[in-house]
Design goal:
By secondary structure, this protein is α+β, with helices and mostly antiparallel strands. The longest helix has about 40 residues. The protein is rod-shaped. Component of the exocyst complex. Belongs to the SEC5 family. One of its GO terms (cellular component) is exocyst.
Amino acid sequence: MSRARQPPLVTGISPNEGIPWTKVTIRGENLGTGATDLIGLAICGHNCLLTAEWMSASKIVCRVGPAKNDKGDIIVTTKSGGRGTSTVSFKILKPEKIGILDQSAVWVDEMNYYDMRTDRNKGISPLSLRPANPLGIEIDKGKVPQKDLEALFPTMSGDFTSENFSATWYLIDNHSSTSFDQLKQAANYLRKQANKKNEGSLAYVKGGLSTFFEAQDALSAIHQKLEVDGTEKVEGSMTQKLENVLNRASTTADTLFQEVLGRKDKADSTRNALNVLQRFKFLFNLPFNIEKNIQKGDYDVVINDYEKAKSLFGNTEVQVFKKVYAEVEMRIECLRKLLLDKLLETPSTLHDQKRYIRYLSDLHAPGDPAWQCIGAQHKWILQLMHNCKEKYVKGQKSHPVLHSPMLDLESDMRHSVSRLSHTASLKRGGSFQSSRDDSWRYKAPQQVAFVENLTEIVISQLPNFWKLWISYVNGSLFSETGEKSGQVEKSRKNARQKQNDFKKMIQEVMSSLVRLIRGAFLPFSLSELELRQYGGWEMKSELAGQWLSHTIQTVRLSYESLTVLEIPNDLLQVIQDLILDLRVRCLMVTLQQTAEDVKRLAEKEDWVIDNEGVTSLVCKEEKCDLCLLNTLKKLLLLHPPPRSVFQYERTQDQVCELCIAIMKVFIDCLEQLSTKPDSDVDTTILSGDISSPDPFGGVHEDFSPTSEQRLLIVLSNCQYLERHTFINLAEHFEKHGFQGTEKITRVSTDSVKELDQKLFETYIELKADPIVGSLEPGIYAGYFDWKDCLTPTG
């Protein structure tokens, strides 16, 4: 049968130069009808058929062998076309080889080196080399983004050597614009490749027949030589020489390769170490990451990483891992100390305290950080209270007179009480804020400003302290990690055991608050030891009753703010006792100061008579009484109703005596005014005609009242006291449960009546003097005096 096809013609090769074993692509015409039709391929005179892969009639892929000629043609031989020709040539370059004993500064890729004579390690035939283009058609890459392919095939790969190879991915990635006909050609090519693998061993043998024959001849020659050597029986036989040569070669090889093998072992160790570092980089980088995140304040990240490392390497037996994990534990221990210091640091918000407690719980900190925080806050509150006292005691000593009792007292109190009332926002979860500035403190006495500041400290710090305890009791201080490990139950158990200790803390805070206020206002109610700790105030003058009343309002509002926290009443009982004692003290001081004010009323008498026939002196005395009644109203009508200040008999007796003293003082003032000499009367105030039918109807300015007029005015004032003032005061005391009103009324009325009788007698005596003076000469008319007569004789 004649050949129907034309001889092969090579028209191109890529690349057209390279070192031996370079992979090249040959293109041309009539390059065969299939892999079995290709029977010869030579490049530069070297037979390359063993590495040839027939792709199509116009394309063959192979590797260039170690040809003797530097440059030559590419000759293809086929069964159907015979020996072909070439219009191009290939140039073989001499490679710069790196010997097995030479050191190299770069990594030598040994996997790409292929020796068809000594390739024992791979154990595969040259035809099984993985092709770069398995379909045998042109590749068109890069039109579809890699990220989109990864999203479409999340668990697959477009690498045909991968176990998770996806043909769809490969086609989209490399042949998205390939026509259907070309894909059909590719399918045929794959079938041919499969058939070619089945014929691979036979082709391998056919292509290497010459090599096999040469090896057969060499082995036969060696065999004959060995037989001759064995029959001659001479010393220095070939086998002995060969053994010696092999031994020397082995020794020399060991000597030569010892350093190389050592470097290889070291390189293998380095690669293994790098692999370990890469695989377990999380653990090896963890100490540095912990330090970095601590500086940034990302404690949650640190805790999560630590939990992960603990679960993975907590029980490891690998020494390297144990060493690194020990360093991690050291960093975590430093973090525990840092968080504990931040937790115990004062001042601190409740939010930060809960956050640090949860961190320490997740880090399995020893002890009970939550209870330590409660103890630190307790000490902090006590320290604030004592520092407040020291501040104001020092201020009192350095500025002993900072206020005047007449400085807009009512306005300052009104603003201060309004500020304290703002604490009601605590019930709605708000914070304590002042509704005005603190300028009023510079007008108030140091003790009053101290109580304001002290109560502000307590009602601003104690709510968070109480809420921290409640969170500790119900276990809400701990995160979900703590709940899973039973931390909540542990916290509740600890809270039950420490409930009495916390109660003692609250009692100590309440006792310190009460004793500090007693030291400022009621020092006589403390012992000498308590005075040294809670006192230190200078008591040169008694505070005004209004300031004491203001202080009572401050303490009472603080008490109401604390009751919002649902603190047990038995813990707040000491504050109720303090309020009662302050009310009693305020009542006594108010009565004493009222007596002093009444004593000075005589200096303010202007002898102006109103329509009721009394002077302004009675009105001024009534104003003093009204001020007294207002103070008593604040003390007696507190809301909610506290215990009565008159519940103790001793208090009732003292109030009774002071009220009687006030009345007697005013009665003494009236008596002094009635007996005041005429020369001491201010004549620039009034003038009147006492001889007129209405002794007071002609009163006008620049009138100097006579002694008779003064007596009549004072008598009128006495009648008004008896009929109005004493009765009003008695009714007020009776209204509020005071039992001594009868005695006050009786004694005061008796005193007024006694003065009235005395002044009336004096007035009668004054009015009777002119009559007696005119009658007295007639009484003695015709009086016989023997001294004026002559002595009788006889």
